[in-house]
């Protein structure tokens, strides 16, 4: 999401004879699958992803996990993957041939799986887990997010006075790669002024005057609207009792700066008090000061109405509580199954099968994930806003890819 110069150098992904997935952990041979990427924002900046073959017996809590929700979630992701045209899934650094994954998805669609045990057997029979490492470091950062709730109306009033914008009519999309294949494949948004493409308005500019965009709803709390923008979506309870889901539509391409880091940098909250729930309480207690602080984050999110059983993630499918993970799709393909090993906000072990179905402006890196906690109000925020843990994950590679 940052406006940086990005040069991708993708080397071949080498697969060496994989071990049998049913071997006990102590007999598993570590066989690396190397994919290298150089991100040059400075001459010294580099990152290397390496995948190390493991077995299912290496996965903590694998026998106890109950991935019932993934039966539908994986089906949704497979439907999106069926439409992909690129040679490798999501064009990610972990290079999974799209056709091979589509074959696995076709097999899954015909299998009529209905139970968690059947799903796990399908995974065991068709995939091999590979530990994901960054320059041989298997640990990364794992946070969590949720779908918040807001109160809103279709009509502006003294109570409902804060606009929730849809995608602006004058928002222009631009990717230099469309014009020059040697240029970075990066999407920007802007607007036309005197026949020239310029950056779109910042958050502060949008807050000071109306923009050329539809107003979907009017909210009653600027704090709740800003938290909705951070989380990406919300369930809005309207003044007539109706409930509607509002999801991510686009953004203004300016850099993101979290409200938590803004408050910490100014000493307005202490490091031990930087949970999202505490931040929300502080913002509501200091509304005038908060309004100024919001503008330090130049990123602005535009929304749309969503008719789905859950919020829509970056892959374009509904997210599932406790089973969807936001990843950096330049490294991890969207739609891929991952075995996650980390801890929840209360240091409780979190070991389960998840699926990469979302992205985020702050989710950058090889071993980096944002765990979707679910939907709700402050009771969900209490958990989701506290999670900031070290952990690791394993990506499931199709066996046919390994055999070839």
Gross morphology: globular
How would a crystallographer describe the biggest sheet?
A: 6 strands, mixed, barrel
Distance linking N and C termini: 35 Å
Instruction: Kindly report the average pLDDT value.
Output: 85
C-alpha-based Rg, rounded: 22 Å
Order of helices and strands: EEHHHEEEEEEHEHEEHHHEEEEEHEH
What would CATH call the architecture of the largest domain?
Answer: Beta Barrel
Structural domain count? 2
Low-pLDDT stretches: 1-45
Question: CATH topology of the largest domain, which one?
Answer: Barwin-like endoglucanases
What portion of residues belong to β-strands?
Answer: 25-35%
Residue share in helix = 10-25%
Q: CATH top level of the largest domain?
A: Mainly Beta
Count helical runs: 10
Strand order of the largest sheet: 4-16-13-15-14-17
| CATH H-level superfamily of the largest domain | RlpA-like domain
- The strand count comes to 17
Which structural class should the secondary elements be placed in? alpha+beta
Detailed description of the structure:
With 404 residues, the chain is an alpha+beta fold. The chain folds into two domains: 25-142 and 327-370 and 391-403, Barwin-like endoglucanases (Beta Barrel); 144-306, Ribosomal Protein L25, Chain P (Beta Barrel), CATH 2.40.240.50. Helix content is 22%, strand content 29%. The protein has ten helices and 17 strands. The protein has helices at 70-81, 98-111, 116-126, 203-208, 222-231, 259-265, 276-285, 287-294, 378-384, 399-403, and strands at residues 32-37, 47-53, 127-134, 140-153, 162-165, 172-175, 187-193, 196-199, 215-219, 234-238, 243-251, 301-306, 324-326, 337-343, 349-358, 368-375, 388-398. It has a six-stranded mixed barrel with strand order 4-16-13-15-14-17, surrounded by four helices. A three-stranded antiparallel sheet has the order 6-7-8, with no helix packed on it. A hairpin with a 4-residue loop joins strand 10 and strand 11. Helix 1 packs across helix 2. Residues 1-45 have low confidence and may be disordered.
